[in-house]
Amino acid sequence: MALNNFVKTVRNIMRNDAGINGDAQRIEQIAWMLFLKIYDEKENDWEFSDDSYQSFIPAPCRWRSWAKDLGDGQALTADALLAFVNDTLFPTLKSLEVTPDTPIRSAIVRMTFEDANQYMKDGVLLRQLVNTIDALDFSDYDESHAFGEIYESILKEMQSAGSAGEFYTPRALTDFMAEVIDPQLGEQMADFACGTGGFIVSWLKALDRKVQAAQTAQAQKAWAESVYGIEKKQFPYMLCVTNLLLHDIEAPRVWHDNSLHRDVLNYTEADKYDVILMNPPYGGSEKNDIKQHFPSDLASSETADLFMVLIMYRLRAGGRAAVILPDGFLFGADNAKLAIKEKLLRDFNLHTIVRLPGSIFSPYTSIATNILFFDNVRAEGAAEGFCTDKTWFYRLDMPAGYKHFSKTKPMRLEHCDPLRVWWSDRQELISEDGKDEKARVFTAQELLELDCNLDQCKFPKEEEEILPPAELLEDYYKRRLALEHEVDRSLTEIKRILGLDVDAAL
Questions:
Q1: Average pLDDT for residues 147-152, to the nearest whole number?
Q2: pLDDT at 167 over 60
Q3: Are 413 and 172 in contact (CB under 8 A)?
Q4: Rounded Cα gap, residues 116 and 122, in angstroms
Q5: Once rounded to an integer, what is the mean pLDDT over residues 447-459?
Q6: SS3 content of the chain, % helix, strand, coil (to 5)
Q7: How far apart (Å, rounded) are the C-alpha atoms in residues 355 and 434?
Q8: What is the CA angle 311-185-208, rounded to 5?
Q9: Which domains does the chain have, with CATH numbers?
């Protein structure tokens, strides 16, 4: 089918269905169907290479059994299709028995569907949607590769799909971080809150260049087995698994689970990774039973803080990490944050902090963010009691001609070029009057004496700008959207604390 019309076609079909309410439901509806379609294509390959292969999905529930329309008038449609999907397909896939011995390529079916939803109420429209998705030919390399780009655009739409936006990090950012980390064959990479799999895909793309240079089956196997992910929420988990299947990871080692549900002191060497790339959830708070999994001095209520502790306990000796964190972590002065930052300086080599423009995640949130790069090694020249020698700060300014990033003007990889140039030739960049610091270096001792205040090389205070009426309205709506999301998240947290039904209306 014409791939450039795919998104438009499925959107038009679902727009007419009374069960679909908003972008988030539309994307989730597409996601589980795409998963089954792509999984069925993978099963064709597994059956071809293994005569003894047995599908984990019962025969009537395989895509090829119920979704195919051969044009003979026998395909399920209307009420019969709705009844099958609602009363047979979903209950069957949600209840598939998974044991510790179940292969991951089978277990992902149950994990993908255990909290998935079927929203459509019109069986005729559902048949139209099934036919549109079935027309995709993933056995054709060119079409499969091209659809990978289409799928990327579907994930980007999540930025305007309410709370779903928290699972999408701009691809330019994940690609740059993977590039700087410089993956090596044989290394294991992890993301403990992997969302839709953006960091995993960027890692695979960067590592693939090494695979192509090696041109061996062993290198290809190392590439496919190099990634590990955990995602707490069902919707992004489903999108992530589908994303990895599209990128030829036939057995995605991605789990539907909460990374914070285990005592960090119990992790062994087998639980650690060479590289960790993450944009952990932030802005939320955790219950006391979660905090009990962490040493008392590091047990913060802030989700991002706990993920930082988790990362430190699961980064292998000699390993490398790149983590996106909000400004609040840099200047936070509560006891737990101070303890976490001191541990980072004393036990790890925190070599670089990149200050990011505030609108990178717009319109989802206006929270300013940063990338922390650190290694689990003792830097040469580090003072006694520290693994960090020097920490460099660099402020990545908005590119020329941009007032802010937006859906129509997103961050692009080339916007990291100034940082890329500076990275290989580090110099302090401070104005003559000393008021504007774009790049600066501190020793670990200096940062400790600053009470671990990592809020350095700040962005200049913005001058108030008088916008034309049209731009003023657009800016207002973006700010309101971000504020509404923050309010909704706060109300959800209040309901959770009070023991109320989180899904119920206030």
A1: 77
A2: no
A3: yes
A4: 18
A5: 96
A6: 50, 10, 40
A7: 18
A8: 100
A9: 3-150 (1.20.1260.30), 170-193+259-449 (3.40.50.150), 467-506 (no CATH)
